[in-house]
């Protein structure tokens, strides 16, 4: 019994947005999904109830891709905060599909939520682990009073998850689990990722 998503295409110069190609979908009367093309390290809403999600690895000590970009932009205090997260077993601070939270230091948001997506081809049911990564990131966000959250395309780089499948898992999980948040954003780095996400959003939220 939910209204179909109301879709609006906004211009890039509305004064608050940092990136181009913003498209907005209503997930519910109180939660909006926004898709951008851009660099997630530049994203923020208010600096106090906002968080970006990092596509990390299980030891949480940085790496390439968006993880490297987030650590560079946050400064060296971020890796120190990650070191303080206890290892659940040797070499693992955040098991695949789970999430952890730290402050964001020099980034313009209040927190970084670190999650680990599946390495595509390594697990039997990658879609379950990818959905868990989104679900657990949203859960830890709400537990920490976050109202605005931005995700990258988890597992879609080094971990080689096919973009079309990943976008469908990402958007359907967010549709199910985003109640209580004001805005959920995707900040997609490339034109191709952005257009795949946009197509899936129109399909799944229409
Ligand atoms: N803003 C937004 N998205 C970005 C940015 C950015 N600044 N930079 C890259 N992306 P990846 P994974 C996109 O490889 O596949 C790391 O080494 C990128 O184009 O960062 O989950 C970790 O330490 C792609 O679409 O993450 C892990 O070892 C998406 O972010 C491993 O990579 C995710 O690509 C995790 O691999």
Automatic annotation (TrEMBL):
Q: Which organism is it from?
A: Dioscorea cayennensis subsp. rotundata
List the coiled-coil residues. none
Tell me where in this chain the Macro domain is found: 20-205
Organism taxonomic ancestry? Eukaryota, Viridiplantae, Streptophyta, Embryophyta, Tracheophyta
Which section of the whole protein is represented? Answer: 51 to 256 of 256
Gene name of this polypeptide: LOC120264467
Q: What is this protein called?
A: Macro domain-containing protein XCC3184-like
């Amino acid at each position: 019994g939910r209204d179909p998503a109301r879709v609006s295409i906004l211009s890039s110069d509305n004064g608050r947005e940092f990136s181009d190609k913003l498209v907005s979908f209503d997930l519910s009367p109180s939660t909006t999904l926004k898709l951008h093309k851009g660099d997630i390290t530049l994203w923020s809403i208010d600096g106090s109830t906002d968080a970006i999600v990092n596509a990390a690895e299980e030891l949480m000590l940085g790496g390439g891709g968006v993880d490297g970009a987030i650590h560079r932009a946050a400064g060296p205090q971020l890796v120190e905060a990650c070191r303080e997260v206890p290892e659940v077993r040797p070499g693992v601070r955040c098991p695949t599909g789970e999430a952890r939270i730290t402050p964001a230091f020099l980034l313009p948001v209040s927190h970084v939520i670190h999650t680990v997506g599946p390495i595509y081809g390594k697990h039997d049911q990658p879609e379950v682990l990818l959905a868990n990564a989104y679900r657990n990131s949203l859960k830890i966000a709400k537990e920490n009073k976050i109202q605005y959250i931005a995700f990258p395309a988890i597992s879609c780089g080094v971990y080689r998850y096919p973009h079309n499948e990943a976008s469908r898992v990402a958007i359907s999980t967010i549709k199910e689990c985003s109640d209580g948040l004001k805005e959920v954003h995707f900040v997609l780095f490339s034109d191709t990722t952005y257009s795949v996400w946009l197509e899936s959003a129109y399909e799944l939220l229409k």
